[in-house]
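pipeline stage [seq->struct] | target=Coproporphyrinogen-III oxidase | organism=Methylomicrobium album BG8 | residues=460
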Amino acid sequence: MDQSIIFDLNLINRYDKAGPRYTSYPTALELHEGFTDTDYRWHIAKSNRAGGPLSLYFHLPFCDTVCFYCACNKIVTKNRGHAVPYLDNLCKEIAMQGALFDKSRVVDQLHWGGGTPTFLSDDQMQRLMAVTRAHFSLRDDDRGEYSIEIDPRETHEGTIEQLRGLGFNRISLGVQDFDPKVQRAVNRLQSEEQTFSVMEAARRHGFRSTNIDLIYGLPLQTVETFSKTLDRILAARPDRLSVFNYAHLPTRFKTQRQIHEADLPAPDVKLAILQMVGLRLTEAGYAYIGMDHFARPDDELAIAQREGKLYRNFQGYSTHSDCDLVGFGITSIGRVGDAYIQNVKDLETYDKLIRHHKLPVFKGVDLDQDDKLRRAVITQLICHFELSFAVIEKKFAIDFADYFAREIEVLKPMQADGLLALSAEGIAVSPAGRLLIRNICMVFDRYLAQKNRQQFSKVI
């Protein structure tokens, strides 16, 4: 499979509009408060009858300092004591949910995200994993994909050794940019020494995969300065890189109001940075997975994409399409059977529900047949850049050309522009269209016309 991209500035300028990132379809905006814990329990029971492995996500929202660019669900505090009652409640939620899922279902995937998971002390991390293991069937053979997001500023050799002992085998490090001026502008001061010492420790202790997060479009960035950051990152040879587009949405995210808009790179500079990144990474041998993600050709993501087994969920690209995703903690989102479920968003409500032995369900959505059909189409396109009509027709008992007649007409101008090739057999996205895959997926989104595009980031 060709896993390359072509940077066509003319196409990007024409198609660079706001739209969903499709970590799910329907998107999280379709979740509603009419979905209750009773509905969730029903879907769990149905899921147990079907069986299959599980994926667990734990949201640990605390951060010691605020990064001005951040759009995550977080609680910024210097007081480590705030984690104590939250962890108590999280352990109770694990017990409640664990009692509902069949213990024969093995956990193939596990992820701690945030926030900053390493905000927890060593003892707290040990407790969280022990409670999880007591109520779910975690693997002991290291064949699962157990990952954690790391802030190198809060991590040392002992932390890495303990995390490996707890069963983690994948690690993701937030970097964003090494330039000191950029770091000061976004309030994230982090040295190269801090970063690479953590990477080296992870490799020494047998972590199977390392991911680096970078962001382009931050204040004071230039092609030259970001290229220097990329030089240092490429020298360390991480297995994966996530190079995110900074979406400046200060009306939605209060911390972004501390960024001086005059310092943000002009649109042409931002595009030049993206072009440089794509060129440098592909020249270094990385495969373009899609949606800001690059991986070495021997990485599991790249292999899964070539073999047609890649999937996309609320954590991004995944190799575990067969897993139901169970979310724990405030704001976490899961997917169980044919439903998406999100927990309550604030500590007070979470505490109240847990104390009353209730699942902290805030909202959710049941997928109908059309949702599942369109999800299959969007997932195939966003993961593999191609779609076989026959496969969809067989799975959903439809005639593709008839069911999606309007969508096919909308795709024809995209074909004329060189984003894709449309035939009677299916859709093949061109290397020039892969950076704009969100635009192609939006054609199949029946909810999008009802939404305010300002709720989404731009595709580039």
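stage status: PASS
auto-comment: The chain has a mean pLDDT of 94. The domain at 23-326 is CATH 3.80.30.20 (pyruvate-formate lyase- activating enzyme).
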